[in-house]
Design goal:
The chain is α/β, with parallel strands linked by helices. 24% of the residues lie in helices and 22% in strands. It has nine helices and 16 strands. An eight-stranded mixed β-sheet has the order 6-16-15-10-11-12-13-9.
């Protein structure tokens, strides 16, 4: 079974905005407006849903969030769905979604990262629909550094189109911009140098496979469930094997180590030709760093493990398409990922 790609975005298309997890508090509504205008400036019509309340940790009751997400994903007039950001408990939507209907509907781009992995990765695994792990809506106004693409660039790319991203080798070390005080901010603070790091050994890496992955802290809770059967997806759609990517949001090194061990034991990495690990702001432990945690859990795979990739909670953002064919190159002079939507 081949991967299903949504039709590329075209000027005049509608983009749905909903919060399947956390909504937007009043003090950040100005930033939301700036982000919406950024999408509209690309020529798209933005449709904002009802599930956007930011007073609590979720935007609405689970049934309402699931219904709105289903409505947007199956509306042929909406070509992409993007949340303002992630959150904490999107997991409660999974049993409420109509997976048979999603399989039978024309694919729509679902975009995001962090807690959105809880929905996007199962959507790819269960329906063979490509999803776009990239910046959320609130990040969209930031100017994209040279060598990288935004989710809007990728969602508009034609099927079969290969695109290569090379990170700028600088990132944000600490902190976040104050969107309540400066909702119009567009320049990212990328002042700390850093390249990709091979954890499992030395030497150059050039490896291919289908991309799949997401946030460790949210996906680990799905291991052993029908929503995270990566091996079945690989057997059905990826005979060439996988490039599995993972990233930590904020859990300490001991928690990440345990979670990755559990994901490995559950088969999440069984078909991996290599593992990409996102750069993380999460803390080390006294006797275990984040890099050591990854190597402790995933070293037994005996595949290349490349860390400090721009696919997580540290700016800038290197968007990845779950289901796309990928080729990673790591040498002393090149950090490069090519994705092909075929």
């Amino acid at each position: 079974m081949s991967v299903r790609y949504p039709r590329p975005l075209r000027p005049g298309d509608r983009v749905g905005v909903t919060s399947p997890s956390s909504g937007v508090p009043e003090e950040l509504r100005a930033r939301l407006d700036v982000a919406i205008r950024e999408v509209e400036a690309r020529g798209y019509e933005v449709v904002v849903g009802r599930c956007m309340d930011g007073a609590g940790h979720v935007s609405a009751p689970a049934a309402d969030r699931a219904s709105e997400l289903m409505s947007m994903l199956t509306d042929p007039g909406i070509r992409a769905v993007v949340p303002p950001w992630g959150g904490e408990t999107a997991i409660d939507l999974l049993p409420l979604l109509d997976w048979d209907r999603l399989r039978g509907s024309e694919p729509t781009w679902l975009v995001g990262y962090s807690d959105m992995s809880t929905l996007m990765t199962p959507l790819t695994l269960l329906t063979n629909t490509a999803t776009l792990h990239g910046n959320n809506l609130m990040d969209t106004p930031y100017r994209v550094p040279k060598g990288l693409l935004s989710w809007l660039d990728i969602a508009a790319a034609p099927q079969g189109h290969p695109f290569t991203q090379s990170p700028p080798n600088h990132h944000r070390a600490t902190g976040w911009d104050d969107w309540s005080a400066h909702p119009e901010v567009r320049e990212q603070t990328l002042s700390t140098p850093g390249r990709w790091t091979r954890l499992d050994g030395e030497g150059d890496v050039e490896v291919e496979g289908r991309l799949v992955g997401g946030c460790i802290e949210t996906l680990c809770n799905l291991t052993g469930s029908p929503y995270l059967d990566v091996s079945a997806f690989a057997r059905a759609a990826c005979p060439e094997g996988l490039l599995v990517y993972v990233e930590a949001c904020g859990d300490d090194a001991f928690s990440i180590c345990r979670n990755l061990h559990g994901m490995r034991l559950a088969g999440f990495f069984d078909e991996a030709n290599a593992v990409l690990v996102g750069r993380t702001p999460a803390p080390d432990a006294d006797s275990l760093t984040q890099h050591e945690a990854v190597l402790d859990a995933l070293g037994p795979l005996n595949v290349p493990i490349i860390a400090d990739v721009e696919c997580g909670h540290v700016a800038p953002y290197l968007p990845l398409v779950n289901g796309a064919r990928g080729r990673v190159v790591l040498t002393s002079s090149r950090n490069e990922l090519t994705q092909t939507l075929d």
